[in-house]
Amino acid sequence: MSAPVVTRFAPSPTGYLHIGGARTALFNWLYARGRGGKFLLRIEDTDRARSTPEATQAILQGMAWLGLDHDGEIVSQFDNAGRHAAVAHELLAAGKAYKCFATPDEITAFREAARADGKSTLYRSPWRDAAPETHPDAPFVVRIRAPQSGETVIRDEVQGNVTIRNDQLDDMILLRSDGTPVYMLAVVVDDHDMGVTHVIRGDDHLNNAARQMMIYGAMGWDVPVWAHIPLIHGPDGKKLSKRHGALGAQEYQGMGYPAAGMRNYLARLGWSHGDDEFFTDAQAREWFDLNGIGKSPARFDLKKLENLSGQHIAQSDDAALQHEVTAYLAAADQPALNEAQTAGLGRALYCVKERAKSFPELIEKAHFALTSRPVEADQKAAKALDSVSRGILEELTPQLQTDSWSRENLEAVLNTFAHSKDTKFGKLAGPLRAALAGRAVTPSVFDMMLVLGQEETLARLTDAADGAGAPPA
User: Measured in whole angstroms, how far is the alpha carbon of residue 300 from the centre of its chain?
Assistant: First the structure.
């Protein structure tokens, strides 16, 4: 019986959760959740100068918005420094690591001389095989005793087998001269202690795998399954960066994209399941596998994100959609909906969610149900409320004092009225949109009437006929 899958996401708290990190977290989450495994979270906060509580909080908020829940307590890499150092001392005692007394100046001088002679600058410490009795009473670092011949093969689920000659690897430092562990040691110890079975991360860490395997081998630990995923590029094919407008994951919440749409888009950003573009969370968990990850960098495409977001908005449950709109307004620092607006949005969702690609679009399309009397027409809509149109609305209003406020009856009344005026209903639509919503582009007139109800509809038509809500001349 195979061991349960354990994945991890291990961000450094030096900034927000960027899109590349969010995708890495998502891939790890999907792989674990789809196999009944565990998804763990570790904050790699060993860089005390750059790590901040605010950045940690931003990462946690971004993951919470994306719905990427983790198992167990959050692990702080800094808190495990004593354990990391203990492993280095264990290797030292076993002869698999050694004390190196070379000073920074000596190493710099070696490299400058090697560079001048056109030789390799890979540093080979003269202390590797020095007898203990020759050790001076001076500061030292602890270096691993790396193999100097043969090859190291990284068996990667995405990149395939990657072979590195061992004579290209140096004796990596494990402990600095002040006794603190280096990042490369900390990562391996933490992954081992957390029981991580699969390391899914960006391919900028691929070369690190060979060096980290030295520690796994020296400690006799099982090497995890490697999966190094290509980085995300911008539309110009270069690594995604701020110049492309790259934002933190949570900023996309503030821009009004639904979390489900972002999860769908990020999953497709470098991974595929046949030709499927739109899929649910349940399908993603079922389908996601490492062999579906491509070797080439994916390109971030805002139009695809918008398209998928629109599909997810259209298929969302209304109650869930209202909850996410509320969260969006808070994230965008927009005023919350009051009780009447919340109720109006709930009634309007059926006729507005099919065509919105983001929550700002959704709210704009639902403007008619969120605004109150007198409805103020924008500049474009106001053009449809000239004196002739207002007169027509005044004539129409009594016709709508009907006992049956149904789509069928409303269509009949409006079409009959248009026929009596020797025109088509389309000619009435502009003034009706302006009167009911104050906008030139709206859901269908009939949908708006049904959402608003008879009393509010008649009141708005009366206001428009009387000139109320018209913008100043």
Answer: 12
Nearest to 372 by CA among 413, 343, 349, 394: 343
SS3 9: strand
Whether the CB-CB separation of 411 and 447 falls below 8 Å is answered with no
Give the chain's length. Answer: 473
**Low-confidence spans in the chain with pLDDT less than 70:** 1, 242-246, 468-473
**Which H or E element spans position 164?**
strand 160-165
Which pLDDT score, from 0 to 100, does residue 437 have?
A: 97
Please give the Cα distance from 470 to 473 (Å, whole number). Answer: 8
Paired tokens of 401: 């004092």
Query: How far apart (Å, rounded) are the C-alpha atoms in residues 121 and 103?
Result: 16
Nearest one of 252, 259, 253 to 316, comparing CA atoms:
259
Side-chain half-sphere exposure of 351, counting CA atoms within 13 A: 20
Long-range Cβ contact pairs of 216-223 (< 8 A, separation 24 or more): 216/188, 216/192, 218/91, 218/94, 218/96, 218/97, 218/144, 218/145, 219/87, 219/90, 219/91, 219/192, 221/188, 221/192
Contacts of 418 (CB under 8 A, 6+ apart): 424, 425, 427, 428
Radius of gyration of the chain (CA): 32
pLDDT at 247: 74
Q: What are phi and psi of 356, to 5 degrees?
A: -100, 135
* CA–CA distance, 101 with 138 (Å, rounded to integer): 7
pTM of this prediction exceeds 0.90? yes
Calpha distance 6→441 (Å, rounded): 51
What region does 295 belong to: left with phi over 0, alpha with psi -120 to 50, or beta?
A: alpha
| Catalytic residue check, 238 | no
Smallest CA-to-CA distance from 300 within 220, 216, 242, 386 is with 242
For residue 158, how many C-alpha atoms fall within 13 Å in the half-sphere facing its CB? Answer: 26
Q: Read off the tokens for 280.
A: 């649910």
User: CA-to-CA distance for 456 and 438, rounded, in angstroms?
Assistant: 14
Q: Which of 239, 242, 383, 427 is catalytic?
A: 242
Q: Can you tell me the distance from the alpha carbon of 468 to that of 452, in angstroms, rounded to the nearest whole number?
A: 18
pLDDT digits (tens, 9 = 90+) for 298-354: 999 999 999 999 999 999 999 999 999 999 999 999 999 999 999 999 999 999 999
